[in-house]
Amino acid sequence: TAIKTNRLTTVLLITGILAAMLVSLLFTDTSTFMIRLLYYTDGIKALIHNPIWGLSPGGWNAYQYNYQSAQYYVSQIHNGILQIGLDAGVPAMLLFVALLALSLTGLIRQ
Hints:
Layout: H1 2-27, H2 30-49, H3 59-63, H4 80-88, H5 90-109
Helix pairs in contact: 2-4, 4-5
């Protein structure tokens, strides 16, 4: 029963985090949400042009102007997974996602 309790706690925690993220997306200022979508779109364009090695750590800060579809300045892309891709390339991003999935799977199976 202790294992079932831990599993339930983990599932509830993950569900709560996902619900909080959804609520913040739905009820945040629309302009903030749209600006972040713009960052992500521009970041994906940069990643498509630099898929293997990315832009290098901190590269988004230097190269964002080459990919911007509007005028803005951010030192980070505001998306952890996409930031890893921009810093180190698609292979690193996929490795991070795989490790995250394995970790979550291990927590849920406990």
